[in-house]
Structures are given as structure tokens and as C-alpha cells.
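Protein data sheet
==================
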Amino acid sequence: MHEDATAVDIRPHIRLIHGMRRPANWLQLVRFGLVGGFGFVVNLAVYSLFVHPIGVDYRVAAVAAWLVAVLNNFVLNRIWTFDARAGRAHFQALRFLVVSLVAEGFSLLLLTVLVEGGGLAKVPAQALAVAASMPLNFLGNKLWSFRT
């Protein structure tokens, strides 16, 4: 360690190490993954329905699918993943929405790049974009939306 390192420089690293040693954090990550997996299926089902049979623009379909999945994921994460029923639901919902909007912005950007720039089919591109936004969602919700 450098002599000029401060506690501020070291602290996030130490917090990360301590957090990784706690089995409860790993259990939360597994639960978040299961809820996210279910939300992922819901998202892709709604997206596919809007894009193919209905013929909605793929970006509009992505937002509609996100809205359905985010409502489902909030309820399941609040109750099961983070066991945050003691907190105020409306504050948690607002924070969850902010985190989800940031992740959705990232996901939409990546979706557009994959479809327009990469020539990838719309449904696989949506699957990749949603999966890529999962780390943003988990960290934002663990550290802010449902923090104790």
C-alpha cells in the first residue's frame, strides 16, 4: 500500500471484501438472479408479442416490456430478495424506478447499437441488452433502493 493512500481510497475496497465474505449477500444475489430471470422471461415475452404479432417499433416494445417487468420485479425483490417489507414502499418504489430507468437507458442504448449497428435480430439483441443491465440493477437496488 502506498504511503499517500487515504482511508477514502481504501474503504470501498475493504467494504467490497467484507461484503463478499457474507453468505447473506451471496444469497441475495442468487435471489436477485432468480427474480431477474423471471423478469427476463416476462420482458422477452411481452417484447416478442409487441414486435412480431402486433408490429410495434422495437424501441417502443422494449419500453412496454420494461414497464411490465419492472412492476413484477419490484414486488418480488421487495418481498423476497431484500426482505424490505419494513421499509416504506413508496420510497422504495421511487428509488427502484430511478435505478430501473438508469438500467433501461443503458439497455435501450445497447439494444439500438446491437440492432442498428450490429445487425443483430431484435429479440436476441433485447435478450443481450437486458442481461447486460443486470449488474447495474443489482448494485443500485442493493445499495440504494432497498438498503437497510
The longest helix spans residues 23-51.
